[in-house]
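ok so I'm stuck.
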Amino acid sequence: MYHTIIIVGNLGKDPEMRYTPSGQAVTSFNVATSRQYTGSNGQKVKETIWFRVSAWGKQAETCNQYLRKGSKVLVEGRLVPDQASGGPRVFTRQDGTTGASFEVSANTVRFMSTRSEGEGDVGGMDIPEGDAGDEIPF
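replied:
not stuck anymore, here's the structure
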């Protein structure tokens, strides 16, 4: 059996790179995907889903070097389930509400922004203040 997920979105903050004890590079970054539609009541609905992406090895180093907050990316990878629940990672925000994080281990990361497009904005997406992945506690 095999599964793959493809997401296209914008980074909510700059990527963070670290090294495993064995010396392998891993870069983590949050990607926001959004869609807009009209609900059954006629109101416009904006929906944003956050994904926590991990890139490994040389790809991790390249992502850390070139990606910045607002960069548009296409990520192909696999969902990584929470070991306890088998679903998304569930956590409690500082305000007491519950949140969930979908985690993706990247096979491929394609950069879709030019350098000037990726600097400082989030590609025209409406991201609520303080909702750039800051509330994910890992």
